[in-house]
Specification:
single chain, 201 residues, mainly alpha, elongated
């Protein structure tokens, strides 16, 4: 409720004293970098947690306690799912930050912003149930960036269909997913095989 009121207050202030376009991009870039750092920290925490559980899984197997090893393996699988999502989101947001920095340097707002909005929107939705705090922050960034795109369209008398940039957004997200997959292989050891027939006992 408090966050909702804050958001409404911000909107009222924005209506009375609009923030200059470039300043909004600077603000969005700052917020994106903050969320990227949070994701990086979360990624490290998950890696450390996985290592601890993985070691327990190996110890359980060495003790021939396959039932316990299976439980630890399942926990590792869940940690790794979250770790991949976190890493993927971090990599995608790093690309968003690079593009926003390009806007600052070269001022090509129209071309650069459309795929950026698509990426932020996708990551925001995917993190909603996983890391809600980061998703909430990205929702504010998403709203701000969409407003920038619409205002640029009005200023240049061009129609910018945000959904038209989905191909480029998807290309960037696919690349982030591939890099995340590779980094997961580098950072997380392969799970040992657990005899399933014994694990069921």
């Amino acid at each position: 409720m408090f966050k909702e009121r804050t958001s409404i207050t911000k909107r009222i202030k924005e209506a009375i004293h609009p923030t200059p376009l470039r300043q909004r991009i600077v603000n969005s870039l700052f917020k994106i970098k903050v969320q990227t750092r949070k994701l990086e920290k979360k990624s490290y925490e998950l890696q450390e947690r996985d290592k601890a559980i993985y070691d327990k899984c190996v110890s359980a197997l060495q003790s021939k306690n396959t039932s316990l090893a299976a439980i630890y393996a399942g926990e590792c699988a869940e940690i790794r799912k979250m770790a991949k999502m976190t890493l993927y989101s971090q990599l995608a947001l790093e690309q968003v930050a690079l593009r926003l920095e390009t806007v600052q340097e070269f001022g090509d707002i129209a071309y650069t912003m459309k795929p950026v909005v698509g990426i932020v929107n996708t990551i925001k939705s995917q993190l909603q149930n996983v890391l809600p705090e980061i998703s909430f922050e990205l929702a504010e960034v998403d709203e701000s960036l969409q407003t920038v795109v619409l205002e640029v369209g009005e200023a240049t008398e061009q129609s910018f269909d945000i959904s038209a940039s989905s191909d480029e957004s998807q290309k960037i997200l696919s690349e982030a997913s591939m890099v995340a997959e590779q980094k997961m292989k580098e950072r997380f050891p392969e799970m040992p095989s657990i005899p399933t027939s014994e694990a069921r006992l």
